[in-house]
Every structure is written in C-alpha cells, then in structure tokens.
Amino acid sequence: MTTSAAPSMLDTAPLSMSRLSLLVDLASLLAREVDFDALLGTACERLAKALRADRATIWLVDAERGDLVTRVALLPELPSLRQPLERGIAGHVATTGQVVRVDDASRDPRFDPTADRATGYTTRSMLVAPIREDGAAPVRGVVQLLNRAGAPFDEEDQRYLVALATQLARALSLTTLRAAEGGGPGVVLQGPFNRIVGRSERLAAVYEKVQLAAQTDATVLLRGETGTGKSLFARAIHVNSRRQTRPFVTVDCTTLPAQLVESELFGHERGAFTGADRRVPGKVELAEGGTLFLDELGDLPLDIQGKLLRFLQDRSFERVGGRQSLRADVRVVCATHCDLERAVAEGRFRKDLYYRARVVEIDLPALRERGPDDVETLARHFADVYATRYGRPSPGFDPDALRHLRAHTWPGNVRELEHWVESAIALAPDGRISAGHLPTRRGEGAPPHAAAAPEGDARVALPLGLTLDEVTRRYVEAMVRACEGNKTEAAKRLGVGRNTLSRALRAKH
Ligand SMILES: Nc1ncnc2c1ncn2[C@@H]1O[C@H](COP(=O)(O)OP(=O)(O)OP(=O)(O)O)[C@@H](O)[C@H]1O
C-alpha cells in the first residue's frame, strides 16, 4: 500500500503551485527510472499535500486473483490490504472505471467500513479515480484520497486527480515494459508480466507482440515446445487486455475425449445425449466478455474444427442438441506445440481454421535458444519462489551448480528447470544449491534424490525393435505406475506437462 499522511501544518503555498510541482516531479522521476515503489510513495506523499488530503492510497488490480491490492505499506496501522475487486468505493471505481467523489462516506452505501474499523480511522470525504491511460484502456488500479482539510473535494480536485492518475498509468506501463525486458527494477506487483522472467532478445520480441496483441481482440496462436510458457503468455494477453476483469477460461483439447470436446466447448441441451439430464453451458458461454484459451489446438478433432471455425468467424455457435444459434463475446487465444502446417498437409487440420487461428502468431523460443543467461535468471527466480514457499533461507547457487544448469539443453524447457530448482530447494535446507542437488545428466547415474523417488529402483525392460513412440509410451506408463497412477506427479518427474504426458500415452501401438 502506498498511503501517506499529509503534513500536519496546512500547506500555505498556493495550491496550483504544489500541484504543478507534483506533475513535474513525477515526470522527472519517471525519466530517471527510479524504483517504482519510490515513485508511488512520492506520488502519494505529494498528492496528499497538493490536494490537502489527509491520506492518499494507491491500489493496483491483481487481475489474476481478481482483487485489489495496496502496493507498499506506509500506513503504520496495517502491513498491506487486499480486497475483492467489487468491494467498497475503490472496488467500484476499479470495476466501473468511473471517478467517485463523496462528501460524507458514512452516507454512501458503496462505502466499506472494514479498513476504518481495523485502523480506528474515520473516513469522511473521498475522491477516488481509476488508474488508466485513457477511457478505453484497462483499469490498472485506483488512486484514493481521504478527508480533505477544510472542505470536501471539489470539481477542480477531481480534474487534477484524473490527470495525475493517467500519468501514473503511463508510469505503470513503462515500468512494466522495463521489468519485462529485464531492465527495470523488477517491479509491478501482480502487474502484467511480473511473473514472466527472462531478458533475452528472443523473449523481448515475444513481450512486444504480446503487448500489442493484448490491445486488440485478434485471435492469437502461441506456438512453442512443451514447457515454454504458452499458458503463461496466454494469461498475460488476457490480463493486459480490456477483458482483464472478465473470465479467463481454458479448454484443453488434448485431455478431453473427442466426443466430449464439442459439449465442453459449446455446452449441451437437456436430453442431447444419454445422461444429459440438464442444460449445461459450454466454455464459450462461461468465458463471456473474457478470453477463451484453447490449449493444444492441433489435437482438436476434425469434426469439431468446422464448428470452431464458425465461432471464430462470427462468434456464433449452437449447444449440442440445440437448434438455436447463440452468440458469445469472447476473445480466443490458442496454443499448439505441434507442426500445424504438417497437420494441414496431412489432412488432419483444416486449412481455413489454421488461417483463422493465426491472425497474430507468437513463437515462444525453446529455453536452449534463450541462452544460458536466461537459464540462470530463471533458476534464481524459481529458487526465490520455492525458498519462500518451503520456508528456506535466502537461496544461492554454488558455481558448479550454475555451470551444470547453464550447460544443460532443457528438452522440457522452463517447466523442467522449474522442477529441478524446486527439487533442489527441497533438498537443500540451508538454501545453498550445489551440483549434487541437481539431477545428473543421462548416463551419469541417478540423481541424488532418486532414493526417495516413488519408483525406487524400478526398471523398464524394453526390447529392441520398438518404435520411438512405443518406447516413450512404455516408459511413460511405467512412470505413471511408479507414481501410483498420479499423472500430474508422473508428468512432473518426467519434466513435461500433462498434455505431453497424455499424448505420449496415446501414441500408436
Ligand atoms: N518466462 C517465464 N518466466 C517464469 N516462469 C515461466 C516462464 N515460462 C514458463 N514459466 C513457467 O514454466 C511452467 C511451464 O509453463 P507453461 O505451462 O505456460 O508452458 P506450456 O508451453 O503451456 O507447456 P505445455 O505445452 O506442456 O502445456 C509454468 O510453471 C510457468 O509458470
């Protein structure tokens, strides 16, 4: 939370001077690329002073969790606050994008007294503005002023705050971009991209496309090997778009049996098939106003491809067993790991759907193409994440561990790296990761923690003469058995996603 108390003495300088100096200050702070928290802190402090408010607070939208969170805790009473997006006047401003000016909060039904109760503070007048670059841009957060000295906030205060909130929104976008490029101070709490790590050139090109695509409703096709972050970027597109406060709904085309895909996507009417005892809405309906993420598009059965094409063309569809043509306002993002051109050439994928899906095409680089520096940055990032999660001290890597990480070729990409680091953190109580905590390369013996692995000493006997698909299938089956049928665990131990695992299990005999 960035909350600031105004100076106790009434500001004697003309209001317009301090207002002007605040804008100038903000501009120069931005130019100097200061720490984002410092920027918000200063903005709050000066804002409170310029508008004679007793308090100023900045809330940011955490689109992934669907709530509002305060940025830096300067308020002495509370460390930080998080609240549902729809609660209170701040929530109202965040969801509607409208400025709210209130003379007496206790008489406004939208006012939520929870924070006042917790702090013993009494809110009277309020002025709350959305942080957004313009009327069409997504709301990034809200800036809230409380208890103006002398009289409630007026029209001029409101105009001024709106102008300032626009500047803050620009600062937020800029800082986000810098953080995404790895050049910034690692900022933007829950903001777009703050969970995406990597500063290689290959990734910078991806960030740029994601940013641009997010500003439109164009259908996006994300391509990349397993574990390269397709789901992560799909979500990044959603949380950076104007649809960010609406649902993000995923349909996994691989894990669904073919006969269920259609009803999963478009829903079904009562009596559509045996067991359909009630009408069930499909994922397109559930995603209304938001984004539908179609994972592993290449696995969509051919007979459903035509229906998806129609939906992409005019957003219309029918429920299974229904005759009524329905519509949904949904943005579609697709992902695939497979070679769609080949699938088209082999008649497994409709050419027209292929062109419809790839209006914007984003290729995610394999981790080995991103270079060892990105590997190291990601490793440090995951080490911090898992050290916090497992209550380990501040983590670090020995030089031999780093060498090992930097030299590996990462067939399972970022997911594989994440699992390696998670496991190393679990095995290193002092947070110090050495090469001994990492899996050894194939042929160099078992990883140090293999003894604790569920499969113990299990072996798979594979006769020569099998196809590679068959070898993979048998190996994966053995791992699933060793994990007592737990496919998520098996996928994790194999360093692949569940999708890849399901595909391997379905490989032809
Ligand atoms: N650049 C990144 N920064 C931080 N984490 C990342 C990055 N890329 C991927 N990850 C993490 O790696 C894991 C795998 O990513 P994700 O599930 O998005 O991959 P995917 O390409 O969709 O995989 P699959 O095709 O197997 O479904 C996730 O935990 C994700 O958060």
TrEMBL record:
Occurrences of domain Sigma-54 factor interaction (ranges): 196-426
Region Disordered: start-end pairs: 435-456
UniProt superkingdom: Bacteria
Name the keywords, alphabetized. ATP-binding, DNA-binding, Nucleotide-binding, Transcription, Transcription regulation
Q: What GO MF terms are annotated?
A: ATP binding; sequence-specific DNA binding
Single Gene Ontology BP annotation? regulation of DNA-templated transcription
CDD domains hit by this protein:
AAA
Q: Which InterPro entries match?
A: AAA+_ATPase, AAA_lid_NorR, GAF, GAF-like_dom_sf, Homeodomain-like_sf, HTH_Fis, P-loop_NTPase, Sigma_54_int
Name of the protein in question: Sigma-54 dependent transcriptional regulator
Look up and give the organism this protein is from: Sorangium cellulosum (strain So ce56) (Polyangium cellulosum (strain So ce56))
